[in-house]
């Protein structure tokens, strides 16, 4: 199956970056107007030069793919080691064994002498 790439406009990435610069200005550096001027200058240059906009969109896509690749590993590792491992250890410490093996038996095999009939085939579930 051929992988189909969505055709996004490079201006979507430019808008996202410009918005991010404005948010950084508003929340972190409201007294430094360089962030706001930088965001406006960045947006203006990308609107005037489409080649620059496509180059920035390409870099933005590669950056977000890299962040996604890295963060998926970090999040899955965190869930595994911080959530699943302690639950498994607690279950091993305090849970009972679900196997049929008792202390006097040497195997998990259960010998079942059963003659199969029509009732077993009619309702197998």
Any overview of this molecule?
It is a single chain. With 125 residues, this protein is an all-alpha fold. Helices cover 67% and strands 0% of the residues. It has four helices and no strands. The longest helix is centred in the middle third of the chain and has 45 residues. The chain is elongated and about 85 Å long. The mean pLDDT is 85.
Give the secondary structure arrangement, pairings included.
Layout: H1 10-28, H2 34-48, H3 50-94, H4 118-122
Short description:
This protein has 125 residues and is mainly alpha-helical. It contains four helices and no strands.
Comma- or semicolon-separated keywords:
single chain, 125 residues, 4 helices, elongated, mainly alpha, 67% helix
Helix content: 55-70%
Class based on secondary structure composition and strand pairing: mainly alpha
Mean pLDDT: 85
The rounded Rg comes to: 30 Å
The number of helices is 4
- Proportion of beta-strand residues: under 5%
Major sheet description: none
Task: Note the run of SSEs as H and E.
Answer: HHHH
Q: Low-confidence spans: pLDDT under 50, at least 5 residues?
A: none
Span between N and C termini? 36 Å
What is the 3D form?
elongated
Please tally the β strands and state the result.
0
């Amino acid at each position: 199956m051929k992988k189909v790439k969505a055709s996004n406009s490079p201006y979507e990435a430019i808008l996202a970056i410009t918005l991010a610069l404005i948010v950084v200005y508003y929340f972190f550096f409201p007294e430094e107007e360089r962030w706001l001027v930088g965001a406006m200058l960045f947006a203006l240059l990308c609107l005037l030069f489409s080649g620059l906009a496509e180059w920035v969109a390409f870099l933005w896509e590669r950056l977000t793919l890299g962040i996604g690749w890295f963060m998926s590993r970090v999040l899955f590792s965190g869930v595994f080691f911080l959530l699943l491992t302690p639950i498994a250890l607690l279950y091993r410490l305090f849970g009972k064994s679900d196997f049929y093996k008792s202390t006097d038996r040497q195997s998990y095999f259960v010998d079942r002498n059963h003659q199969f009939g029509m009732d077993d085939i009619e309702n197998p579930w």
